[in-house]
Design a protein that fits this description.
The structure holds two protein chains of two kinds.
Chain A lengths: L1 E11 L4 E10 L3 E6 L5 H8 L7 E6 L2 E2 L4 H5 L2 E4 L11 H9 L7 H10 L13 H13 L5 E5 L7 H14 L6 E6 L2 H7 L2 E6 L2 E7 H7 E6 L1 H5 L6 E7 L2 E7 L8 E3 L2 H12 L1
Parallel strand pairs in A: 3-8, 3-9, 6-7, 7-8
Antiparallel strand pairs in A: 1-2, 1-4, 4-5, 9-10, 11-13, 11-14, 12-13
Helix pairs in contact in A: 5-6
Chain B lengths: L1 H14 L1 H16 L5 H24 L1 H7 L4 H29 L4 H29 L5 H24 L10 H28 L4
Classes of the chains: A alpha/beta, B mainly alpha.
Chain lengths: 279, 206
């Protein structure tokens, strides 16, 4: 079963359009939604959670429609938004009590175990937490009702590298169960590069690419050569090129290159080059 | 909805201490002089304001958006505030009625007070909440002031009548009018509740 299936999802605003987005997240996998600020990542997350109304397309979450009985569907989803949304005056103990009265499958023991693991004090107010602690509490709250799908929208933004690494570890732990899946959106590509099985690039509301990460890295590479050598390559092979007086650098599809040395490409480079080409 | 109400209880208990202080002053004024019963109406209105105050805390913390990502429908989120808008004024009106009984008002006066007080305090959230859900609490504040004016001006008028009569008349209007006002307040509250649900269902929270 797929954890998430999105087909031709469309949403228009006065100055932005999410244009016919189609992506699938297989069960047990992690999908990274990458895009610059304003690319449509948060709009996509809100549409998945039915927080805003779609103009067109279909969304199925864990085999169920996102528009029918969405409250039941959300019992199986853990959500962490960029702004945690927890009132400043609450402490983690109170947050636990609220969530216990929100989710049918709330697991108090597991929540308290996560609080201890993340070193989150029970009596300290949320407003006194650092950004990292706030996010860890939001993740603990999102993971303690036995969700099958975690959705994180820019959850790692603004975190220091140590906490980001801890968050990545937590997410790895979550996916040890084979029916657990994660959709994570970020503009910090390095986090997703480590974590994800699938990558989707969003740019100005359009899906530039959706592929399995390993296949993506096998399919694309970087060549450093002369302008003359580059001009011999088929235009379909060259995704993006940069020519300087000292030579040329190009993002290429590996299968179209014969006699040139190809260096591996990172997801971040790939995203930047593709975004430039799409401008 | 229990989670939503519990959250509002925590937020109110921690942030609205000033309201409790004002309530103590009003109650003290009534105990000091039983003709100051006018303060008990203000106390009810104070209870009616609390749903908007809680909504403004929700907006500031991002809870409104977050709650939509939890298993809560827009109807439940709206209803949470309207339930508080019923419980608090009811509790305040009951408390005030008990206080009036303690300072020896007649049963008829207490019943009339209870109906009027509860009705007036329903009117505040009934007018303000749809605007607050539609425009946000800050922009909806104009409705809030309008509602207070709509309620306080007639109260001042009634108070004036009482003063002219030179008697400590609690409700200088007939029971029929009180019943009509109460009916309108309840109807207004129901319409407002349904309207806010409709607004929230179509609202696009950024």
């Amino acid at each position: 079963m797929n954890a998430l299936e999105i087909q031709n999802l469309t949403k228009s605003y006065k100055d932005f359009k999410l244009d016919s987005l189609s992506i699938t997240l297989p069960e047990g996998c992690i999908l990274g939604l990458i895009g610059e600020n304003g690319a449509g990542k948060s709009t996509t997350v809100k549409l998945i959670l039915n927080m805003i109304k779609k103009d067109g397309g279909n969304i199925r979450i864990l085999g169920r429609s996102s528009t029918e009985n969405i409250s039941d569907v959300k019992e199986d989803i853990g959500v962490v938004l960029d702004e945690a949304g927890i009132p400043d005056c609450l402490n983690s103990k109170e947050v636990g009590k609220i969530m216990k009265n929100t989710f049918k499958n709330w697991d108090d023991a597991y929540y308290n175990q996560l609080l201890r693991k993340f070193d989150l004090p029970a009596g300290k107010k949320f407003k006194e937490f650092s950004r990292g602690m706030k996010m860890k509490l939001a993740i603990a709250a999102a993971m303690s009702h036995n969700p099958k799908l975690l959705i994180l929208d820019e959850a790692t933004s603004g975190l220091d590298p140590v906490v980001r690494d801890q968050v990545v570890e937590m997410l790895y732990d979550f996916t040890r169960e084979e029916n657990h899946s994660i959709l994570i959106s970020s503009h910090i590509v390095s986090d997703l590069e480590k974590l994800c099985d699938y990558i989707a690039f969003l740019h100005k509301g359009k899906l530039l690419l959706f592929e399995e990460k390993d296949r993506l890295l096998e399919e694309y590479g970087i060549v450093h050569c002369t302008e003359a050598q580059l001009s011999k390559l088929n235009s379909d092979t060259v995704v993006h090129k940069k020519v300087t007086p000292y030579g040329a650098e190009a993002l290429v599809k590996r299968n179209g290159v014969r006699d040139l040395q190809i260096s591996p490409v990172t997801v971040e480079e790939l995203f930047i080059q593709m975004s430039k080409e799409a401008v | 909805m229990k989670g939503l109400l519990l959250k509002d209880f925590y937020v109110a208990a921690k942030n609205l201490k000033i309201y409790f202080l004002i309530a103590v002053v009003f109650i003290g004024a009534v105990i000091f002089d039983k003709n100051n019963v006018y303060f008990l109406y203000l106390l009810s209105i104070l209870g009616g304001i609390i749903p908007m105050t809680l909504l403004s805390f929700d907006e500031r913390s991002g809870w409104t958006k977050y709650s939509l990502a939890l298993p809560y429908t827009p109807s439940r989120i709206v209803s949470g505030k309207y339930v508080i808008g019923l419980i608090l004024p009811f509790a305040v009106s009951v408390f005030s009625a008990a206080l009036m009984w303690f300072i020896k008002y007649s049963s008829e006066e207490i019943i009339l007070f209870f109906i009027t007080s509860f009705s007036l305090s329903l009117a505040v959230p009934a007018i303000c909440l749809p605007f607050s859900f539609k425009l946000g609490v800050e922009k909806g504040r104009i409705a809030y002031y309008a509602a207070l004016a709509l309620i306080i001006v007639p109260m001042a008028f009634l108070g004036g009548n009482a003063a002219e009569n030179a008697e400590p008349v609690l409700i200088p209007v007939s029971l029929d009018i009180i019943a009509m006002i109460s009916g309108i307040a309840v109807l207004l509250y129901i319409i407002s509740w349904l309207l806010s649900i409709r607004i929230m269902k179509t609202k696009e929270i950024s």
